[in-house]
Specification:
Shape: elongated
Number of helices: 0
Order of helices and strands: EEEEEEEEEEE
Distance between the termini: 40 Å
Largest sheet: 7 strands, mixed
Helix content: under 10%
Radius of gyration: 15 Å
Structural class: mainly beta
Strand content: over 45%
C-alpha cells in the first residue's frame, strides 16, 4: 500500500525558516505531481506549492518569494522550505502525490495524502 509521511513541522518564531519533508513509500512505479497543501483552523485546505516530474513549480501568491519546493525522485521525497515565516502560515501542512502504483499485479494512478504535520508560527 502507498503511504506518504510528512515530517519537519513544529513551533517557530516569526521570521524564522523551516523545511518540511514528505516521503512516499510502497509499490510506486512513478510519481507525477507532488505538492504541499495547508489547512488552518476553520478554513479550507489550500494549495501551497506543487512540482511536476519535469521540475515545473507553482506557488500560492501568499508564499511566493518565501517558499521553495523541491523533489528527489531517487528517494520519492518532496521538500518545502519556507522562509520569513508569518503567523498566518500557521496550519496543518499536508503532502500530496499523484502517482502510479502497483497492486495485485496491475498498475493504477491515483492521488494520495499524508497525515499532515502541524506548523505553528508564534512568538
Amino acid at each position: 500500500q502507498v503511504q506518504l509521511v510528512e515530517s519537519g513541522g513544529g513551533l517557530v518564531q516569526p521570521g524564522e525558516s523551516l523545511t518540511l519533508s514528505c516521503v512516499a513509500s510502497g509499490s510506486i512505479l512513478s510519481i507525477n505531481v507532488m505538492g504541499w497543501y495547508r489547512q488552518a483552523p476553520g478554513k479550507e485546505r489550500d494549495r501551497v506549492a506543487t512540482i511536476t516530474r519535469s521540475g515545473s513549480t507553482a506557488y500560492a501568491d501568499s508564499v511566493k518569494g518565501r517558499a521553495t519546493i523541491t523533489r528527489d525522485d531517487a528517494k520519492n521525497t518532496v521538500y518545502l522550505q519556507m522562509n520569513r515565516l508569518k503567523p498566518e502560515d500557521t496550519a496543518v501542512y499536508y503532502c500530496n502525490a499523484r502517482l502510479t502504483y502497483n497492486t495485485g499485479g496491475r498498475y493504477y494512478t491515483g492521488d494520495f495524502w499524508g497525515q499532515g504535520t502541524q506548523v505553528t508560527v508564534s512568538s
